[in-house]
Amino acid sequence: MNAAATAAAIRAGQLRATEVTEAALADIAARNVRTNAFTEVTAARARAEAAAVDAARAAGRDPGPLAGVPYAVKNLFDLEGVTTLAGAKIERGRPAAARDAFLVQRLRAAGAVCLGALNMDEYAFGFTTENAHDGDCRNPHDPARVAGGSSGGPAVAVADGLVPLTLGSDTNGSIRVPASLCGIFGLKPTYGRLSRQGSYPFVTSLDHLGPFARDVTDLALAYDALQGFDPQDPAQQQRPAEPVAPLLGAGLEGLRIAVADDHFARNGHPEALAAVAVLARALGTTRRVTIPEAARARAAAFLITMAEGGNLHLPDLRARAEDFDPATRDRFLAGALLPATWLVQAQRLRAAYRAVVLAVFETVDVILAPATPFVAPPIGQAMTEIDGRILPIRPNLGVYTQPISCIGLPVLAVPLADPGTAGTPHDLPIGVQLIAAPWREDVLFRVATALERAGICGAPPVPA
What we know:
It holds the Pfam family Amidase. This protein is α+β, with helices and mostly antiparallel strands. The chain is built from 15 helices and 17 strands.
C-alpha cells in the first residue's frame, strides 16, 4: 500500500497507525538483512508516534495528510535522541541529537511515523553506498550490485517496499543516482526550497534535501508536507509554499519539452540514452537543446565539492585520519590542498554557467537527460568502458547529475516502468532526469504524472 492509500485508510478509520507501524517494523526485521538499508531502527519512537496518530483521530482531531505513513531518513538527518552518524566512524562518539531536523519535524506534524535511519556513503561523498563502517547497501533488484549513493539506503528502503517514503540529500546527484539505479522516483528541489537545518552538511553551497517514493502521488504528498520557511537555514528563500499535489492532473498542454544533447547525448552506455529516447517518444517531443559548458561545469562542481568538503573535515583529517574510509579521506585531503585560485575560477565558471543555462529555460520548460550513465554495476567493480575509454565507475555515476547540481535547478528522477524498452542489461532499472528552471517543481510533477499515467514511468515491482 502506498503512502496516499495508507493515510486515507487511517484517516477513515479502516486501519490503525499502530497496526501499520508494527507490520513495517516486522518487515524490516525480516528483510533488511538482504539489503542493509537501515542502520538504526527507532522502534520505540515509531510506536509512540503511531499511538499519537490513533489518539488524535479517536479524539476527532485531524491526524494529518500523512497520518500513520511509515518513513525513514538518511542517517545524516538529526533524530532526537539518536547520534547522527553521516555514515562515518568518527561521528559515533558524538552526543545524540537534541532535536529533530526541520524536515523531520515537518513530516511528524503531517502525521508520518519515523522508523529509523538509513545507510549512506561516508559523509555523503560517494555514488555507490559501499560503506566501510556500516557495510555495503545492496540493490534490491540484484543484491550483488550497488544501490547508488550517497542516498543508497533511502532509495533501497523505498524500492524494496520497507517504507513508502524516505528523505535523502543530493549534492552532486545523491538522490537522482540511487533513484535511477533502484527504479524509483526521487526529487532534488530547487536550491533553497527546503530547509537543511538539522542535517549533517557536505558542501553547503551545493547541498539539497528531498524525498523518495514509488509513485508520483506519494512524492508530491511528501514534498508538499516538507515545504515551509525556516530562518535557521540561510540558503532558504522566504517564499510561500507552492503545493504540487493539486496540479498532478493538469496535463502537458502549453509545456515546452526538449531533450538535452551534446554532453548528455554521450558519456554513457546505450541504455542510458535509450531511456531518454523512450520518454521523448512518449511525450511526442523531437526538440533538442544544448546546455553549454556542461563538462566544464561538472569539473567546477568537482573542485568546489573537494574544497568545501576538505575544509569542513580538516580538523578530523589532522587528528583522526585513520578513522576515515581511505577513499573518502584521500578525496578530502586532495580538496584541502587545492590552490585557492582553482576554487575562485570554479566559482566564476559556475556563475557564468548558471546565467547561460537560465537563458536556455527562456525557450523551454522541461529538459530530459539521462540520470545515470549505466545500470547498477556490481559491488566492488572499479572500472567500466564508456565511449571507448576505460573510466572509474564511482565518479562517473554523476556525469549527468553534477552539471545540474552546481546551479541549484530542480530535478525529478523518474524510472522507466519497463526497463526492457531501453534494452537495459538483465532488465535492471534505469531512470531519466526531468529538469526545470528554479522554483518550477510544478512542471516537473505535471510531466512525471503524465508519464506515469501513460505507463511509461513507474517503479518496478518490489523484488520477491
